[in-house]
Write a structure and sequence with these properties.
This is Nucleotide-diphospho-sugar transferase domain-containing protein. By secondary structure, the protein is of the alpha/beta class. It has a single domain, classed as Spore Coat Polysaccharide Biosynthesis Protein SpsA, Chain A. It contains 7 helices and 7 strands; from the N terminus they run βαββααββαβαααβ. The chain has a 5-stranded mixed β-sheet. A two-stranded parallel ribbon has the order 5-7. The longest helix has 17 residues.
């Protein structure tokens, strides 16, 4: 259960956007400011979309999506997906990798909240409890290919009885870095983490990787006291 924002420690919000999302964001920004109360908002998008993002003083920074992670661009992501899968969901995979890769960027501080661009926060939200645990909103769904991929990324014998997939996730920067480092360390062919996240799939289906499910499962195994349902 989320607490009222009065006790909320302000945090940075990261939102990945395509061109179509920019128009919705102009309406959604009011609710994000009112009900999440962000310290700063980082919009990760194609630099050609910068002009469509509202300029709200020093609150928003537009970041070229092709400069968030070293050696990862949309074209690189597209080539990786084409190498291992037959799907053409290039943008979908690219945004997931960017959400994790933000932790490696010069903009990342201690933590950041990833918020889905098409989700409206209609009420006041907090993402930590009074003891400082990160609150997560879980679901009952279980997409097996996600866990097959996770098992190929790192040792995770414990699986939560719920799904971490949601419309948002609070990422701890040091934990994300630890996870990505472990993914590269465990890669048989020494692939960069963003390629290994796709290469570790066990079958060719449209959705083989989830950044939220992967991070949640990593915390569940390696930092069991970090997340609280």
């Amino acid at each position: 259960m989320y607490l009222k924002k009065q006790t909320l420690k302000k945090m940075d919000v990261v939102i990945c956007m395509s061109l179509k999302d920019c128009w919705f964001f102009r309406k959604n920004l009011y609710f994000i400011k009112k009900n999440i109360n962000p310290n700063h908002i980082y919009v990760l998008t194609d630099k050609r979309n910068f002009n469509y993002i509202p300029n709200v003083g020093s609150l928003i920074t537009c970041v070229d999506e092709n400069e968030v992670v070293d050696n990862l661009t949309f074209s690189v992501c597209k080539s990786i997906v084409e190498k291992y899968l037959t799907t053409q969901a290039f943008g979908w995979y690219y945004q997931q990798l960017l959400k994790l890769g933000f932790a490696l960027s010069r903009y990342a501080k201690d933590e950041y909240l990833v918020w889905d661009s098409d989700t409206v926060p209609l009420s006041e939200l907090n993402f930590k409890d009074e003891e400082g645990h990160d609150l997560v909103l879980v679901k009952k769904e279980r997409h097996v290919p996600y866990f097959d991929t996770i098992d190929g990324l790192f040792h995770a014998p414990k699986k939560a009885p719920y799904s971490f997939i949601s419309e948002h996730m609070l990422f701890n920067v040091s934990i994300v870095k630890e996870m990505l480092s472990l993914i590269e360390e465990k890669s048989q062919f020494k692939l960069p983490w963003f390629e290994q996240c796709i290469a570790a799939r066990k079958e060719d289906v449209i959705q083989v990787f989830s950044e939220f499910e992967t991070y949640g499962t990593f915390c569940y195994n390696y930092h069991p006291g970090k997340l609280k349902v």
